[in-house]
Amino acid sequence: MVRVISVHHFTRQDVAGLEHAGGRGVSRGKFDILLVGGEHKVDVRDLKLGGVLNGSFPTVDLVQQLAYCETGNYVCTLETKPARHGGDHRYVRVYLNWDQDNTNQPMRARIAGRVTPSSQSGVANLEMVEIPLRKPAEYIACCQSTGNIAVSCGISVTIFRFCHKTHDISKLKFIDFEELIELDMSFIVKEVAISEDLIGCVSESEAHIFQVTINSHLLKASSEEKETKPQEKRSKSRSKSKTRSASRSPGRSIDSLSSSSRLRGKRSSPKEESMSVIRNSEDYVDLSELTWVPTLSYGRKKPSEDQRILLFPSLVGAAHCGPLAEPGEIIGPINSSRCSNVRVKLVSGSSAQKVPQNVFEAVTLIHRRADHNNDPDIPFSNLKVMAVYDAEAGKKGGASTPRRASHPLLPQGSARKVGASIFLTTPHVGQLYHVTLSDDPFGHSVVRGGVFSYTAPVYSVALEPSLLHALTLTGLETYTLRPHPHVVVSHLPEDLNMIVPPHWEETVCLVGLRPFLNVESLTLTDSCLALIAANNEGGDKSHTVYSLHLPSAASLYKEMVRVGRSHRSASPSTYLHLLLEAHLVLTTALQHEVPTEDEAEEDLYSLLQDSSALLGDYYAQCENEAEWRQATQYYQVSSLSPDAVIERLELTCPGLVAVISSLLLHPNTPSLTAAQANCVLEMLEKIAPEKVSTIILKSTCFTEYKKDKVLSIIKQELSKTNEPRPTDVLALALVFLDRGSPEQVSTVLASLRAYQLVVALLQHSRLLFTVEDGSTRLSPLAQVLAEHKKEVFTEVFVSLIGEGSLTLNAFVDAFIAVYPIMSCGPECNTHSLRLRDFLEKFFLEYAHNAEITDQRERYDRAITVLVSLYLASLMGAFGDKTKEDPNWCDQRAALKELYAPRPVFLNLLPPFNSLLSSDLPSAEDRNNVLKFVTSNPEALGAQSLRILCLDPQKQLEYILSEFPPVLLQYGKDMYESAAEWEELVYKLINHKSSLCESDPSYSVYSDVLNDVLSELVMTAPLDVFIRIIPKNRHEELRGHIRQCHSAALALHLRSSLISYAHNVLMQMSK
């Protein structure tokens, strides 16, 4: 559908007559230059000056087609010369230095790639470079980014590379063209378009737009093939020659061909034959043949699964999320062999990058084929392929970005291409597609960008960034154009996920319809639209140039808004549609255009903000929440403050409260002044007083408000209910804090139950701490909780640390910053006890959580503090038990394994808790404990602390010398391998042997050795026990070896009896 709305969009019209009969070739030149082909010449006209003749340059033959290229500033022509025996000869020629004053200067001529220019230096004269062709040319196109030329010749398209060369003698640089790539299509190409590696070809009934890519798998295989031996190369070449006739598709491998040939020889089964009958039936629907066309959607959205709904033939009226591909239409990306095969051949001898011949493939993006019988709307024509570049990386000619040098069709340095817009038309309908590129060619996104139904058959089209001009049988029609999605996204705030209508399904606007008769060509320059019309009356074949001056984006936007406002009351949908179209005009202008002199005082960004504000006003007056969210997003783009939005809207506006609340709660909203906050408060007090508490608690921009007014509003809300709302109570406490009355906070919070307060604080955790420059600080509210609501404080912060909102180290640093624990005094002891109890409660909850304990950098500082607190307690720092929490004191006394399982051998030593038994303390913490017990050997549990902090090797030596009765239990707790037991027995025997029998400790070590060996006799297998006993002690310990052997025999006998009994039972059960 097309919405017809008249919008005046041309600022001026100039008319000029052509002195000579107009030629068939017309093209734009630099800026507003119009190139018109004549009899063996090309006229140069300046449309800015009304289309007056500004010079000309000669051509060799009659020009049939003109093409201008910005890269190289050259004019390419397709020329014809009558042949002697009928027909004509066709030539493609390039003219250099065409814009210089060539009066009375000869035209130099040469053949591209074969003849170099003259070595004589001097004035840059007009130079003709003939492109060598092997077949008659049908159409020419130039790539504006690379300067390459594409020439269609029958079913072939040849690409000639634009390059700079240096003369061997004079060392002067000159422009030349080399034959680079030849493309063989499956139809006769009547029209071609090229943009770097994106190529489009059109015949009367078929259109194919594809990307020439390098298959990475084929490239890798080709490089590996070069490294193989010559014999292997010959065998592979013989294998390829056998299968070459099977397929010409560059993507098919020899393995796939061989497997398919084997399948051809396989006889089909009855099931396959029955399926073949079903497929051939008239009502058979093959779901694999139904192609889904993604819809055009502007803006950012959160990643979600692509939900696709398929329309079955019987469900014509069912709702769906976009169109299916039209008959004969294929939306890629797919390999070209699946729709219209393209053979890509790199011409040998080219000086381009050395890339193997067989690694190129064509990836189809769009393919359309018309049926001559059922679809009379042919031929296809006016193919346009327009690249879209990343504005942040710099437009073409700006900042360059490194590009892949391996692809011969890509420029060495250019702005990063992110996609392309592709336009194609039939006589009655135009189709716009948008392609978004990715690193993987088969990961590109192709969406339909719009459908244009003309009022009459179309001859020619010209595309501005935001408008489509169509030259039809009745005149000039102008439509609004849907820009590429990247254009819209690039001008949205980075943190804003929003969808910007209209989508492609929305009707486009026919904004202009001007009658013109006998128009033969339509050409778009930088700021003008040129139409050349023929005067066929009275045998006069003169021509007229109509130069229509294009409006600036700012003036077009203002005109659309003016027309839209005139429809605001009578047709709100028309008003919205024009607002959206005007918004896209500005967005597109910011991407493509440079502000003109007329726009010197008009800031496009300011206009874009005004446009966003108008759209926000419209959506705020709608009735549903989805449109209110849309309004909020547009207001964010407009940079309007909440009070400014209130001034734009009436108090009865349905979305006022929702929009203002969303703006106030957004983290990027700038802080409001006292006057702005008062304006917001007055509005909320009138229509939504229940929202004030939420704004106070959650808004980061709402700080400079009138405390007394807020207290009055909240107290009035509290008086309406018997059970106070936690948000109202918490907001009231926060206001008291802001007023400087912390003593009233605890009284206010006492009106809530503990669990209610915990839930409310967790929902508004930003009130408890702040992070500035990487440093965490406790808020005044958190300090009040720490002093008056200890249980709530602990539970809330333990939960916040556990869920990852805060690290334990950051909490400890923030706590110590407010409550120092390193100085002496009774208050220090109180603070230390609070921190110790908090850390113990945290590890009681999370000490066995691997997700917490595996990230040592998040808690190592806390462990160091906790170790220091425990060491201080050993010195009597916390002797006053009255300052401890009695409930937690009893609970922690009952805990034996707070941090980790405590080894049993510690029960044989003076007591200590289980912190050092865990992996939580670092090596530095253990070294500090060792220094402490060395300096304080009489401290409670000093021996246990020393053992737990020593290395395993030193632990054994220390226990062996100081606490030998502990050795057996130590081995049971700590050892897992026979090698460790072997070391213990070896050292125990040696230590015993070093003692005299008269030594009082000799009997102790003898008993310990017997206990250890008796334990091993019963637990270790015989072979392991033999390995543990030193070889030179076997005779001495023969009794223990016999006991182990007897135990092994007893175990074997026991297992045999059990097995025998089991078999007997099995037999009896049968």
Automatic annotation (TrEMBL):
Biased composition (Basic and acidic residues): 222-234
One Gene Ontology cellular component: cytoplasm
Name this protein carries in UniProt: Hermansky-Pudlak syndrome 3 protein
Segments for region (Disordered): 221-277
One Pfam family cited in the UniProt record for this chain: HPS3_C
Domain BLOC-2 complex member HPS3 N-terminal: 4-240
BLOC-2 complex member HPS3 C-terminal domain location: 556-810
Biased composition (Basic residues): 235-245
Compositionally skewed regions (Low complexity) per UniProt: 246-262
